[in-house]
Structure formats: C-alpha cells, structure tokens
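seq:
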Amino acid sequence: MELILFDLDGTLLNGSGEISPYTEETLRMLADRGIAYTVATGRTLHTARDLLLDSHFPHPQIFKNGVMMWDPGSDDYLLENYLELGEVQHILDAMQSQELTAFICTVDDADRHGIYHTPLRSELESNLAKHFGGSNEVDVHLVAMLPADVSIANISAIGPPEKVQRVEAMIADEPHLVAYAGSALEGEQYRWIDIHHTEASKGAALLDLKARLGATRVICFGDSENDLSMFAVADECYAPENARAEIKNVATAVIGHHDEDGVARFLRERFQLSTTS
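struct:
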C-alpha cells in the first residue's frame, strides 16, 4: 500500500488558497484507483475542514505540524503532543518582550478548540483575531479567560521579521520546543512563527500514520521548512517549483508550481491517471 501526504498551503492549494477543479478531479482519480492520500498541514482542523469537505479525504489527517492527528471516520484525535506549562510561560515571555501578540491554540476534554490571545497591539493582530473567530466552532478570548484545564497545542504570532527572529532565538534553549517561521500571507513585511513541542512534527506523525494504515511506501509533497521532517522519512518527496530552496535541495525531484496544479499534474503522470481510468 502506498500512502500520499500533501502539505496544503503552497503545495496542494493554489495561490488563492483553494483546491483547484483540476486538482480535485485528480484526487477523485486517486480514490477511484484505491490510492490512499491525506494531508499533513500546519493548519488547525477547523481552518482546513472547509477546504477538505468537497474533496474526499477519508484517512486520518495531520494538523498543526504533527501536534495532532484527527480521524474523520471516528471524529477522534489519534495523536496529541501538547506543551508543558513552563514551556508556555517561556514562549509568552519571549513574545511579550518583542511586543508581539501571542495566539494560544487550545483543546479541551471534549475536543473543542479555542484560541486565547494576549492584548492586541495592531490592526493586523485585530484582523487575525476576527479571522480566527469567524468559525462558529472556535471561540476566541483574551488570555485572562484561559481555563486551567485545557491542553495547549501551540502558540503563534505574527510581526516584523526581526522581532520574530528574536523570539526564535529566545526559546532556542528550551529542549522540548521547536519553532517554525516563514513569510506571512499578509505581506513580505511580516513573518509568522508557530511554536510546538519537539515531539510534534510532520515526520513523526507520518511514521505513526504509516504504521496505523500498514503502508509500505510513503510519497509526500511540501514547500517549506516544516516539511523537512516529513521529507526525511518518506520514500519519495517532491517540492513544487515555488518551494523554499532548502526543501528543493532535499527533494527527490522538483515539480510544477503550485499555481499551475504542479502536484496534480505530477500525480497524473506518476500513476498514469486519466479521466477514463
């Protein structure tokens, strides 16, 4: 059994953050051939759910860069790697020192997601809070309302590159923390950062999922540094033309641009898919 894992933003999704009709048709071809596929994304379940609804994704899905794995069949989380309280405080102190608003992603005992934030400092951060609160399945509150009994999956922030880089440096001495950072969709003048537990990686979640499904080979697609751990353990790994240089350098091959259905076009050739297959 071969298993295919897709990163979403910059890989399977086009520049508008959508699964194109051509790619959606390709996914249906894979399903018709009995080829298993799923996603491994830095997004939360709730920010990815609407994207995946119209394209059939029946297998467990990896979210928040491996913090959690969700099974759509049972509606249960199969994997959870949460932050310790001391680690959380270290992250919050670092972000406060750089005047960045921390967005704390939580999960409660009923698997309900919440986002708690420190005081908003800019219009950009206020817009983010509104965006997060746009889903009726995710509550957004000030950090003062953070319950004591929820689990913390990750902490994110957005801001000028120099401030984000200082936060990365400040939490580098925590042995159980890993930070992923990259260019923000809001503009090149901003950079995002997402901080998780070290056991939370796409690569570790991939190996867990491979064992659960009994897959013999794994093929993955990704474009950014949070995909490196996945590339390291996959049998084949492919980077779209728009991927970062460090991803291209370790990829099995570089394929077409994500805005030109690069992944779907590669899959049609790789598995000899056609509308009549």
